[in-house]
Design goal:
Blueprint (H helix, E strand, L loop, with lengths): L2 H21 L6 H12 L7 H5 L8 H13 L8 H10 L4 H4 L10 H17 L4 H16 L3 H25 L4 H5 L8 H21 L12
Helix pairs in contact: 4-5, 4-9, 5-8, 5-9, 7-8, 8-9, 9-11
The structure holds zinc ion.
The site of zinc ion has 4 residues, from loops.
């Protein structure tokens, strides 16, 4: 095998690399992109209903929640989980709320109806992108989370709930509240070893705080949901 052949081969490989990157699709039209960014922006001011219902002062937004959830994903080292995909699932999982709002189990909307509303919202948001490849990727990530088909979805669901109790603990500490129902609702939920260890750490720290302050957990009061 001569140098000429090798050089040819290298040139061919380089050419293929360029064509495959440039061939990956048309850009999202700028006007469509701006519309999408504005829709996503709504999540920055959409307050999470659970905190609103518990009279939390200046409650976090849905975007706040998804950001920290994605950051939690960086710390997952489980080799069975595709971390890049996990982080993407976290960033997309509540996107439909930009259109339908944050519907909780206490809002009188059935699970099926919530799913239907959110799927319609996703189709509306993504149908407006003017780019099937990008729309399909976002939809696949959202459906993965909704249907819980892959290992990433399973871990993302654990991170969703874990992020919520980290936030509940923060509100308890900074606003002097007891948000026991959030901890109760996640009891026994954390089965992934890494998330379970984080949950134990958080619950221990909370238990110590409650023991120290002499505060009674809210569980002893009638549950108001
Ligand atoms: Zn969420």
């Amino acid at each position: 095998m001569g140098w000429g052949f090798l050089r040819q081969l290298l040139l061919l490989t380089a050419w293929m690399a360029t064509t495959t990157t440039t061939a990956t699709a048309a850009a999202v039209p700028a006007s469509k992109a701006l519309g999408f960014f504005r829709t996503v922006g709504k999540l920055k001011t959409l307050k999470r209903t659970g905190w609103v219902n518990h009279n939390v002062f200046e409650p976090e937004s849905v975007a706040d929640h998804m950001y920290r959830m994605a950051m939690l994903g960086f710390l997952i080292t489980d080799a069975a989980v595709d971390k890049d995909r996990l982080i993407k699932v976290c960033l997309v999982h509540d996107l439909a709320e930009a259109v339908v709002g944050d519907i909780t189990p206490h809002d009188g909307v059935s699970k099926e109806e919530k799913r239907r509303l959110e799927e319609t919202a996703m189709k509306e948001i993504l149908g407006d992108l003017g780019n099937d490849a990008v729309a399909d990727e976002l939809m696949a990530l959202w459906l993965d989370y909704e249907d819980g088909t892959g290992p990433e979805a399973a871990v993302a669901k654990q991170l969703d709930k874990y992020e919520m109790i980290v936030q509940a603990d923060e509100y308890e500490r900074t606003q002097g509240k007891t948000l026991d129902s959030f901890f109760k609702s996640t009891e026994g939920y954390f089965t992934h070893p890494e998330v379970a260890s984080w949950a134990r750490e958080l619950l221990d720290s909370r238990a110590q705080r409650l023991a120290g302050s002499g505060a009674e957990p809210e569980a002893k009061k009638p549950k108001t949901g």
